[in-house]
Amino acid sequence: MKRQALGPAIAILTTLIALPALADGDAVAGKKVFNKCMACHDATSEKDKLGPHLLGVIGRTAGTAPSYLAKYSQAMKDAGAAGLVWDETSIAEYLRSPKQKVPGNKMAYTGLKDDAEIANVIAYLKADPKP
Length: 131
Hints:
By secondary structure, this protein is mostly helical. It is built from six helices and no strands. α2 crosses α6 and α4 (88-96) packs across α6.
Protein backbone atom coordinates (compact mmCIF):
# COMPACT_ATOMS: atom_id res chain seq x y z
CA MET A 1 0.00 0.00 0.00
CA LYS A 2 2.71 2.48 0.95
CA ARG A 3 4.52 1.96 -2.36
CA GLN A 4 1.43 3.01 -4.33
CA ALA A 5 1.19 6.29 -2.41
CA LEU A 6 4.86 7.00 -3.02
CA GLY A 7 4.42 7.46 -6.80
CA PRO A 8 2.14 10.52 -6.61
CA ALA A 9 4.27 11.96 -3.80
CA ILE A 10 7.40 11.70 -5.93
CA ALA A 11 5.59 13.32 -8.89
CA ILE A 12 4.48 16.24 -6.71
CA LEU A 13 7.94 16.66 -5.21
CA THR A 14 9.55 16.61 -8.66
CA THR A 15 7.15 19.31 -9.86
CA LEU A 16 7.83 21.50 -6.82
CA ILE A 17 11.58 21.15 -7.29
CA ALA A 18 11.31 22.05 -10.99
CA LEU A 19 9.13 25.15 -10.46
CA PRO A 20 11.92 27.42 -9.19
CA ALA A 21 13.85 26.64 -12.37
CA LEU A 22 11.17 28.46 -14.35
CA ALA A 23 12.15 31.71 -12.67
CA ASP A 24 15.77 31.21 -13.69
CA GLY A 25 15.26 31.37 -17.44
CA ASP A 26 17.48 33.39 -19.77
CA ALA A 27 15.57 36.09 -21.68
CA VAL A 28 18.20 36.33 -24.43
CA ALA A 29 18.03 32.57 -25.03
CA GLY A 30 14.25 32.83 -24.78
CA LYS A 31 14.18 35.35 -27.62
CA LYS A 32 15.83 32.74 -29.83
CA VAL A 33 13.32 30.07 -28.76
CA PHE A 34 10.47 32.56 -29.32
CA ASN A 35 11.40 32.56 -33.02
CA LYS A 36 9.30 29.36 -33.15
CA CYS A 37 6.32 31.45 -31.99
CA MET A 38 6.83 34.59 -34.06
CA ALA A 39 4.85 33.48 -37.09
CA CYS A 40 1.70 33.62 -34.94
CA HIS A 41 2.54 35.88 -31.95
CA ASP A 42 4.23 39.20 -31.24
CA ALA A 43 5.73 39.82 -27.80
CA THR A 44 7.15 43.30 -28.39
CA SER A 45 3.96 45.18 -29.29
CA GLU A 46 0.19 44.87 -29.03
CA LYS A 47 0.01 43.71 -32.65
CA ASP A 48 -2.04 40.55 -33.07
CA LYS A 49 -1.11 38.05 -35.73
CA LEU A 50 -2.73 34.66 -36.28
CA GLY A 51 -2.70 34.43 -32.47
CA PRO A 52 -2.97 37.18 -29.86
CA HIS A 53 -0.06 39.43 -28.94
CA LEU A 54 1.85 38.28 -25.88
CA LEU A 55 3.05 41.65 -24.62
CA GLY A 56 2.20 41.66 -20.92
CA VAL A 57 0.76 38.14 -21.01
CA ILE A 58 2.17 37.22 -17.59
CA GLY A 59 -0.56 38.21 -15.14
CA ARG A 60 -3.29 38.40 -17.80
CA THR A 61 -6.46 36.34 -17.55
CA ALA A 62 -6.61 33.81 -20.40
CA GLY A 63 -8.73 34.85 -23.36
CA THR A 64 -8.93 38.54 -22.47
CA ALA A 65 -6.55 40.52 -24.72
CA PRO A 66 -9.00 43.23 -25.86
CA SER A 67 -7.71 43.36 -29.43
CA TYR A 68 -8.22 39.61 -29.87
CA LEU A 69 -11.54 39.04 -28.06
CA ALA A 70 -13.52 38.18 -31.20
CA LYS A 71 -10.93 35.60 -32.29
CA TYR A 72 -10.32 33.55 -29.14
CA SER A 73 -11.67 30.01 -29.11
CA GLN A 74 -14.60 29.42 -26.79
CA ALA A 75 -12.34 27.05 -24.86
CA MET A 76 -9.84 29.85 -24.14
CA LYS A 77 -12.60 32.28 -23.15
CA ASP A 78 -14.09 29.63 -20.86
CA ALA A 79 -10.68 28.91 -19.30
CA GLY A 80 -10.28 32.60 -18.47
CA ALA A 81 -13.83 32.81 -17.12
CA ALA A 82 -13.01 29.82 -14.90
CA GLY A 83 -10.05 31.71 -13.43
CA LEU A 84 -7.03 30.78 -15.58
CA VAL A 85 -4.46 33.55 -15.24
CA TRP A 86 -1.15 33.29 -17.07
CA ASP A 87 1.55 33.04 -14.43
CA GLU A 88 4.86 31.20 -14.71
CA THR A 89 3.34 27.85 -13.80
CA SER A 90 0.23 28.01 -15.97
CA ILE A 91 2.05 29.34 -19.00
CA ALA A 92 4.74 26.66 -18.60
CA GLU A 93 2.01 24.00 -18.60
CA TYR A 94 0.44 25.58 -21.68
CA LEU A 95 3.75 25.87 -23.54
CA ARG A 96 4.45 22.20 -22.82
CA SER A 97 1.05 20.96 -24.03
CA PRO A 98 -1.46 23.57 -25.21
CA LYS A 99 -4.18 21.04 -26.00
CA GLN A 100 -3.87 19.40 -22.59
CA LYS A 101 -3.86 22.67 -20.61
CA VAL A 102 -6.80 24.19 -22.52
CA PRO A 103 -8.61 21.44 -24.44
CA GLY A 104 -10.32 22.81 -27.54
CA ASN A 105 -8.08 25.86 -28.00
CA LYS A 106 -7.11 26.91 -31.54
CA MET A 107 -3.32 26.90 -31.24
CA ALA A 108 -1.90 24.43 -33.73
CA TYR A 109 1.59 24.24 -32.19
CA THR A 110 2.04 21.04 -30.20
CA GLY A 111 4.26 22.58 -27.54
CA LEU A 112 7.82 22.87 -26.29
CA LYS A 113 9.21 19.77 -24.64
CA ASP A 114 12.48 21.10 -23.21
CA ASP A 115 12.23 22.58 -19.69
CA ALA A 116 15.09 25.01 -20.34
CA GLU A 117 13.42 26.33 -23.50
CA ILE A 118 10.15 26.82 -21.61
CA ALA A 119 11.93 28.68 -18.78
CA ASN A 120 13.77 30.82 -21.32
CA VAL A 121 10.61 31.75 -23.23
CA ILE A 122 8.93 32.72 -19.96
CA ALA A 123 11.94 34.87 -19.04
CA TYR A 124 11.69 36.52 -22.46
CA LEU A 125 7.95 37.14 -22.10
CA LYS A 126 8.54 38.70 -18.65
CA ALA A 127 11.47 40.87 -19.78
CA ASP A 128 10.81 44.59 -20.06
CA PRO A 129 12.41 45.84 -22.14
CA LYS A 130 12.86 42.81 -24.37
CA PRO A 131 16.45 41.83 -25.18
